[in-house]
Amino acid sequence: MSRRPTIRDVARVAGVSTVTVSRVGNDPALVSPTTRARVEQAMRDLGYVANAAARSMRTRLSRSIGCLVPDLVNYPNAAIAQAAERHLAAAGYSLLLTSSDYDPAAEVRALEALRTRQVDGLLLYVSDETDPALTRALARLDMPLLVLDRTLPVDADTLLSAHGPALREAVRYLAGLGHRRLAIMLPGLPVRPVVERRRAFLAATAEAGLDPLAQRVVEVPPGDHHRLRAAQDLLAGPAAPTAVLVEGSRQVRAVLAAARGLGRAIPHELSLIALDASDIATVTTPELTTVTRDYEEIGRVAAGLLLERLAAPGAPWRRVELESRIELRGSCGPVPGDRG
Amino acid sequence: MSRRPTIRDVARVAGVSTVTVSRVGNDPALVSPTTRARVEQAMRDLGYVANAAARSMRTRLSRSIGCLVPDLVNYPNAAIAQAAERHLAAAGYSLLLTSSDYDPAAEVRALEALRTRQVDGLLLYVSDETDPALTRALARLDMPLLVLDRTLPVDADTLLSAHGPALREAVRYLAGLGHRRLAIMLPGLPVRPVVERRRAFLAATAEAGLDPLAQRVVEVPPGDHHRLRAAQDLLAGPAAPTAVLVEGSRQVRAVLAAARGLGRAIPHELSLIALDASDIATVTTPELTTVTRDYEEIGRVAAGLLLERLAAPGAPWRRVELESRIELRGSCGPVPGDRG
DNA sequence: GTGGCGGATGAAAACGTCAACATCGAACTG
DNA sequence: CAGTTCGATGTTGACGTTTTCATCCGCCAC
After folding, report:
1. Which chain B residue is nearest to residue A75, measuring alpha carbons?
2. What are the start-end ranges of the H helices in B91-122?
3. I need a surface site. Which of A22, A226, A271, B237 has the fewest CB within 10 A?
């Protein structure tokens, strides 16, 4: 593989200086039409593409964005990342994607790598809001940050989802169906959506006049084994909840499996609302009532906010909140043996 | 935001030359322990990270890999990309990810962008094997290519999945259950897996002694509307197949919906085998018998092949094939009203 | 006719890093 | 003790691009 043609090769072939070639690429209006045509012809003939490394060294801009997600296989993450990539690419930015597998140490390493690579900004979906090493690494970073659905003590723009309102609506809906013993299963991660949902669940059940002692919040450690076990523990016994809200399709799977194992039919003997699991909501029987979000919108808005920040580095920090919504399907029903 | 510290700043603080600093980063053994310690301290104090653009300009290596996938939301793609990213990152490479949305023109544009960005190699999952513009762009690329599950007329290493054997096994299994009218639904994309599966389906049904005229191959254009329509058309009528093989979870959804709409119960009135849809296979009722692959393995091997190619640019091209396997679950049963 | 202006182009330098070569002293060899 | 080797460090220049400033030419206004 021979050396790639440089701006100098193009200049020589077109009989102009390198500056002129550069201008054809960056600000064509500065070059006369005849010269421009000659240069463009030379570029085509040689198969010239600008060397981004050299350009980025000179301009101190890499036109690339780093993106850190905990898990790309998780449907919402993939959908958000894909939408963001699409919009960043349209603006001429490339996406450097890293998946941390929920490991804060891996995230710190990834941040270092992205810093070395001179990304112009960062799309950040961290897996632990409380990790001090991570917070320190972020503060040291000194570049535009767009934080997704996290509360972090750093200067950054933030794009949040409003998890509370739709979840309250879901709880009211279940209470309206006569349920008095609810549970919510959340991943055991120190991140905002979990905090918000727990809070909204407790507030909404209290508002609905349900006995606080009969409501359960279960935080599940990662690993399918734990997920299944937690679901089985929750659903077994006479005081088991009659309705559960479950975050994430992996945990939903576990609950479906546990319910099947225990012979609890959905929705007749157990009502189920899935949170952020729209990838499987319409293939189960019955289909799942879901609290979901518009992931395409999230990715799009995130990309937009970051691009605006890059264009206006001095502007005040922004904090945007997008709605969640409830989608009623068939996984909820009245309480079995309702006393009403 | 002030200028980031450079190798020169570190050199000044540590009282050494820039080369020494460079060596501490790249080949520490060349530097005496005391000097090294002093340099490392200075790096920490200043928060120095090397500028990858400058390094890459000097070394002509970017230590980044481009990855082109048609759709990141598609579970197998996400799983493969994530596994590849993990292994590339472990080797010090970053992943530039682009999703083309099945648009060959977008793929050509993305290739141009990745070329400009001087990626050292490419992980390529194109959406059209036959597009001449794409093939031309690839030939022009002049960098190590790892082609995933495609047959492309370019010099490249190739990682294939063996789609045929497991699919033949699936057909034999269905024939063994008494099915005489089978169908296969494939996406209407000119790519190798579709070609392979079509061929294997036709060969296996013939081998099983089934009337060739009663077997149907349906190629479905993209779009959920088309998917549902195609499924309804296929399943309606007296000559409808009693068993279908369906590629991709989106099409599987459509078939499930159509079957439900037509009142055809699975597996009693319709047998279903899903191809590459393991994300939903265990949440449906009944769970789906599936032909699937080890996506983590694919991503890992792909990354490994590419890394080996980067280490040995002159080695002969490689062509690796990984197995598929069938996972029996509950979506297949004997033919309704079997004459046997 | 001269001064000035704007459009088109070029020369030179700089971005941050590393490779190639040079230097220097100390330790070893015979 | 001279010659050789080796380990540790430094000097210089180049990678490919863009920025800054300068030049040149023709044209217009006064």
Report:
1. B73
2. 104-116
3. B237
